[in-house]
Structure formats: C-alpha cells, structure tokens
C-alpha cells in the first residue's frame, strides 16, 4: 500500500511517500480501506516533535488520526462490524496512520459513518467532534441556560463545538474574524467577537465554561470571564498533573508538566474557577452519539478544502497556517 511517513522529527521536513505492507489485523481489529483522511494541527505537532514526551512514537511513522472508509476484513472477536461497512474513526494514540491506503483499527474506536454525509465530510469529523464532546458533555457537563465561550469559532473544533453547545441549550460566544461571522451565526453562535478589533474580556462576564484553544495569555484572560465555580477547559495546554497521571507518564514528565501548569492552576484556584487540560481520546461509543446528531442535522461537518492524496504536504502546510474555516481533508480513494 502507499503511505506517507516521517523518518525523523522535523518541523520543516516533508512527509515521504513510500510502499509498505498492508497491516495485519489483530482479533479485536478491523482492516479499513481508507477513502479519506482528516488533517489536524496535532499531526503537524507530532511531526515537529512537539509531543514526543507525551507521545513517544517509534519512527518511521505514518501520521493521521481521522479516517473514513470501508471495512475489508474483521478480526475473529469483532462483533459490531462486518466486511463492507462504511465507517469513520479517530484512531487511538499509538495506532495512528490514516495517511495511507489501509489501516487496522480497534473495534472500540470505530463507528458507522452517517449515511447523509460523504466520505470526505466523515473524515473531517472524529477528532474535532470528540474533542467538543469530551470538553462540553463529559468535562463541563454543559446544561441548558448556561453560557459558554468557545475560542476560534471558525476552526475545526470551534465549528463543531458551537453546534453541540447550541444543541445542549447554551448561549454561545466565540471569537473569529468578521468575515466568518455569517457562517458562525448560521452554526448557532450568539455573541460574535472580532478578535482583531475587540477584547473578549471587556465584552464577556459571568460565563460558566470556556473552551480554550489559544495561547497562555488568552487562557489567563479567559479565567477572568468565568463566574466562581466556572470551568476553563484547555485543549492547547498547559497540561496538568492529572493529565500526566491519566496517561501514565514517566516521573520526570509528571514533574515537568506540573511545573508548566503551576502558574495557571494557582491563578484559577485564587479566583475559585476550575482549570483542566483535555487531550482527547478515541471513543467509538461517543462517536456513535455524534453520528445520531449528524443524521438529525443537528451537527453538520464544515470542510474548508479537500486535497488529493499526492498533495498531502500542501494540505498539512495549509492546516499549519491556521486559516482554514473548518477542516482540511485528503481524498485517498
């Protein structure tokens, strides 16, 4: 099979096209012929070596976390899926590799693809939708009538999180450039803040939840718009000791992450708000819940561009610019 790999950590280096054997599945896995793969900033960060302490991968490595395709083989213990099923998934850490023609995926990480969206749209969904779900449903327990601030509303996570938050009955504020306002209003955003001209800290107050995806300075400002008992959930760091414990990190990594997040945790405690870091995980059951919302047209995928497979380096470069409105996808079949 054709696959794009990295041979060493390198921010500026290109993914290299190579021939590799088709994966051999384990008893609890399915083999998927990949039709489309979603690209995420996480792929670029892994390529550059930014996450090598948290995710110590062996090189060479096929990147790619999001997939949509058709099952061509099932393991002997697989009961939920059969050959021919159209599926999508965010594959688990240490099992990534969707920038290829085939991948073996654990049954527990897979969900049936909603029939009302294309393969390309399906490939855009899993990582960002699971991030939104685990932030707003699992961690924040967002309720009807609450107020949530979702940063960078026009990004991959933002476009899905806004729709999910509205479905849950929350008032949604977001930041974006003015040219994205019409799209974000259509997705359900109530309060639109032009980050180039306006300061969200001046406009927002007494919020219940913040979904932070920006730098530490923005996170510090975000804490101050929360009401006492409010929750700041960050997907861009800094990671916390709780996160280090959850991933079973080595002792020196735990110490390093504790020091990294000490300042923000201290500030949060002082003003009686809760700070947590989310590094989303693969979860087929949660993805099935998201599928129901897609089928009901409660959530719709937002795809900015679809690139052919042979232009994957160009696609990843576009993701790194941060200018994409929604998601970037490669069409493989």
Explained architecture:
This protein is of the alpha/beta class and 333 residues long. It folds into two domains: 2-126 and 282-331, Medium-chain alcohol dehydrogenases, catalytic domain (Quinone Oxidoreductase, Chain A, domain 1, Alpha-Beta Complex), CATH 3.90.180; 140-277, NAD(P)-binding Rossmann-like Domain (Rossmann fold, 3-Layer(aba) Sandwich), CATH 3.40.50. It is built from eleven helices and 16 strands. The chain has helices spanning 41-48, 119-123, 126-139, 156-167, 181-187, 200-203, 216-223, 241-246, 251-270, 284-295, 312-321, and strands spanning 2-6, 16-19, 29-39, 61-62, 66-74, 86-90, 102-106, 110-112, 147-150, 171-176, 191-194, 207-212, 226-234, 274-277, 303-308, 327-331. The strands form three sheets. Strands 3, 5, 6, 7, 8, 15 and 16 form a seven-stranded mixed β-sheet that branches. It has a six-stranded parallel β-sheet with strand order 11-10-9-12-13-14, with helices on both faces. Strands 2-1-4 form a three-stranded antiparallel β-sheet, with no helix packed on it. Helix 4 links the parallel strand 9 (147-150) and strand 10. Helix 3 packs across helix 4 (156-167). The longest helix is centred in the C-terminal third of the chain and has 20 residues, at 251-270.
